[in-house]
Write a structure and sequence with these properties.
240 residues; alpha/beta; 9 helices; binds pyridoxal-5'-phosphate
């Protein structure tokens, strides 16, 4: 164990999160190994990210292109995968494709086309999730439910994109029951997606954050995105 107190605290927080994840998985009759812990490293310094990369997290989540690029070029992820989870503007796609192993937050046909074009240029196949906004709040990112089927159809037609599944963020301030219902409806859509395209292999359902990852695991999440419960409260003054 690390003797640096900040490192010890982080290690303890991660151990706590892992324990709670394992208990939720067991309660749902699932194998805890099915659920990946994505450490949401937005606003953290590269040193902090580097420290956490040596600990028990599976991947990283960033919601700003600049931070993704900075942490990546500093080697802070230590080779672990980094996911893009924030609202992605088409003019930033160039920088994100090729660094992010998974873009979780694809929410428009236009964005799909921009990613396809860039991935083609870089001669790679970009893994993505479609982000849905089931709550229909104006201020939030994510596509409306009616956009799911056209986006899925389009994503599956693009040769440099591999659609892996769905992502969702419940409305802020929801109760535990509300979160659980939200996650259940997202899981229902994920199951429909699998039924609609039986020849595809969709394997990622990303839902649940610090305040809701247990409910998300109970409802079938395969990735939880946890920031505060690992790094403590965010200091937006640090933002790259
Ligand atoms: C910030 C963020 C998280 C993590 O939130 P915490 O409450 O700190 O765990 C998860 N998902 C997305 C999309 C985020 O932007």
């Amino acid at each position: 164990m690390d003797t640096n107190p900040a490192a010890r605290l982080m290690e303890e927080r991660i151990a706590q999160v892992r324990l709670r994840m394992a208990e939720a998985a067991k309660a749902a009759g699932r194998d805890p190994a099915e659920v990946l812990l994505c450490a949401v490293s937005k606003t953290q310094t590269s040193d902090t990210v580097l420290l956490s990369a040596g600990m028990n997290v599976d991947c990283f989540g960033e919601n700003h292109m600049q931070e993704l690029v900075a942490h990546h070029s500093d080697g802070a992820y230590q080779g672990k995968p980094a996911h893009f989870i924030g609202h992605l503007q088409t003019n930033k796609v160039k920088k994100v494709v090729g660094i992010a192993s998974l873009i979780q937050s694809v929410d428009s046909l236009r964005l799909l086309d921009a990613i396809e074009k860039e991935a083609g240029k870089q001669e790679l196949r970009q893994d993505i999730l479609l982000e849905l906004n089931l709550a229909g709040e104006e201020s939030k990112t994510g596509a409306g439910l009616e956009e799911l089927w056209p986006m899925a159809e389009h994503a599956l037609s693009l040769p440099h994109i591999r659609l892996r599944g769905l992502m969702g963020i419940p409305p802020a301030g929801s109760t535990s029951d509300e979160n659980r219902r939200y996650f259940a409806s997202l899981r229902g859509l994920f199951e429909k997606l699998c039924e609609e395209y039986p020849n595809e292999k969709f394997d990622i359902l990303s839902m649940g954050m610090s305040a809701s990852f247990e409910e998300a695991i109970l409802e079938g999440a395969t990735v939880v995105r946890v920031g505060t419960a690992i790094y403590g409260p965010r200091d937006y003054g640090n933002k790259a």
